[in-house]
Design brief:
By secondary structure, this protein is mainly alpha-helical. It has a single domain, classed as A middle domain of Talin 1 (Up-down Bundle), CATH 1.20.1420. The protein is built from twelve helices and two strands, in the order H-H-H-H-E-H-H-H-H-H-H-E-H-H. Strands 1-2 form a two-stranded antiparallel sheet. It starts with a helix and ends with a helix.
């Protein structure tokens, strides 16, 4: 019992330390590369924290378990919106009037439709869709790195600039710490749950699902403490974009991704609902505060309950 608790404590310490250094590193690298900070948040934090989902997806595809691929990607996207965004919204009111955020939200809507329509029609992800997702991944990345910051942001980034060497150290240890800290916490929590005789279904739906989003939660909250609302929301939406274009796009070249009826009946509708509900608030410039956050969390708990009922 002591070892799992110790792992939880160590993982949490790593997570908090990493979150503390990743945001200054991200802002500073945005200055050196002369691109907006939210772009670096998408490329570095969102893509970096989505790396575990990509590894899990590829391994699952190689092992012939496409249901894990779909569950991992869909579950992560649901958790990012209904949990990560909600936790940050409970702590700070999140403004949604950034034009870049609207652009990324529209892309996420298009990508969600692109994978959902074939899934319901073919019960799988066709190869041409996987090819299209990889093209979008390359095009989106190219587009982001060619963005230029405004004058106000350039001045703001300059005031928070670190030395180049410290910037690289902060970014490297920030991303590494977020991933390793979350992994250590998940292992400790699973071990503790096993010692308490909690079922594997409950562990999978709660501890692992929530645990894989810990890096996004830590990074988003840290962004808000630095008053960088564009980075907080950008990293969440960006993570969902990379989950789809990289997690499903690349994995489709490894294996045919058939999808189960259970996923089509609960998981995918929940992801669609969460994505389009978030889009309404962003496209209408409505801030996300405590009431909306509580609403999103309620939907998430209903989603967990439905999964428990079906699995039980």
């Amino acid at each position: 019992m002591i070892i799992p608790i110790l792992m939880l404590a160590i993982g949490l310490a790593m997570l908090l330390t990493a979150a503390h250094v990743i945001i200054p590193g991200t802002i500073s690298i945005a200055h050196y590369l002369r691109i907006p900070a939210h772009v670096v948040a998408v490329l570095l934090i969102a893509a970096g924290t989505s790396a575990p989902e990509l590894v899990v997806a590829v391994q699952a595809a190689l092992n012939g378990t496409p249901e894990i691929v779909w569950g991992n990607i869909i579950g992560s996207n649901i958790t990012n919106i209904l949990v990560v965004l909600s936790i940050t919204g409970l702590l700070f009111k999140i403004n949604t009037n950034d034009l870049a955020i609207k652009r990324d939200m529209l892309l996420l809507i298009a990508l969600t439709a692109l994978i959902c329509l074939p899934a319901y029609y073919f019960y799988s992800l066709p190869l041409f869709v996987g090819f299209l997702l990889v093209i979008i991944l390359a095009s989106y990345t190219f587009f982001l790195v060619n963005q230029k910051p405004g004058e106000k942001e350039t001045e703001k980034n300059l005031t928070e600039k670190l030395s180049f060497q410290r910037t690289l150290i902060y970014c490297f240890f920030g991303i590494t710490g977020l991933i390793l800290g979350a992994d250590t916490m998940i292992k400790g929590a699973v071990e503790l749950a096993n010692n308490l005789s909690i079922s594997k279904t409950v562990i999978g739906l709660t501890i692992i699902a929530f645990g894989t989003s810990l890096p996004e939660i830590a990074a988003a909250v840290a962004s808000l403490f630095h008053r960088r609302f564009d980075m907080a929301l950008g990293s969440i939406i960006g993570s969902n974009i990379f989950n789809i274009v990289a997690g499903l796009g690349i994995t489709r070249f490894v294996s045919e991704l058939q999808i189960s009826k259970d996923m089509l009946s609960i998981g995918m509708p929940t992801m669609i609902f969460a994505t389009f509900t978030l889009a309404i608030f962003i496209l209408t410039r409505r801030p996300i505060g405590k009431i909306i956050s509580c609403y999103f969390l309620t939907i998430y708990f209903i989603f967990l309950w439905l999964n428990l009922v079906i699995s039980g």
